[in-house]
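Methods, example record. To illustrate the input and output format used throughout this study, we show the complete record for Type III pantothenate kinase. The sequence lines were provided to the predictor; the line carrying structure tokens was produced by it.
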Amino acid sequence: MLLAVDIGNTKIKAAVFEVNALKEKFVFEKNEAEKKIKKIFEQHQKIVSVILSSVGNREKEIVAELKKYAPVTVIDHEFSFPFINKYATPATLGVDRMVLAAGAVLQFPEQNRLVLDAGTCITYDFVDRNNHYLGGAISPGLQMRYDAMHNFTAKLPLLYPETPSTYIGDSTNSSLHSGAVNGFVYEIEGFIKEYSRDYEDLTVILTGGDAEFLAKRLKNTIFANSNFLLESLNNLYIYKIKND
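The corresponding predicted structure is encoded as:
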């Protein structure tokens, strides 16, 4: 069994895999890591290895904790990915984005793929059918838009994502919801339209914390999977074993 770990900006997500089957998923705060890691290994004593990616700043502490229980593979820029990186500044490309791109290549071979990761920020990552990673975009995430409107104005309240009943807000709150949610959806649909125009047979993968909230609101045909990054880590581990 394999433990896949994603250290994000706000939380840690982990999942236990048996080959390609996700057996159990865990989400916890970084300050809970020691206790939660111990519990995972107590519950799943057949875990023999760990694969980890991180955008956080406590990676070393968490890796050290995991190594008490099993060998750990940390994904970094030197890892062998199943795509050719055409990014102009490859050293600045986030490892989480590289993992998502690799997962798209491994799960959707010989296709044009656009991965949308809707978390703290939303990232767009494009890999063409020839497995060339070309780049994408980074934009404020859904809650960040609400936070910004509150923090950078004098009187706008702090709200949290809520489905607007119409695009015409008839109060301050409904106007904020319309602007944040509808604006977010229109942005995503606009990007998908641009990519679809230039690249035929585009496969769009939506993941991240806001994936389920957004999936129902997007008109385009997409593959929504909130566990895609963890599944991509598992697929990368299998890819590594096959190619070592």
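Annotations derived from this record:
Helices lie at 33-43, 59-66, 95-107, 142-151, 172-198, 211-215, 228-243.
The chain has a mean pLDDT of 94.
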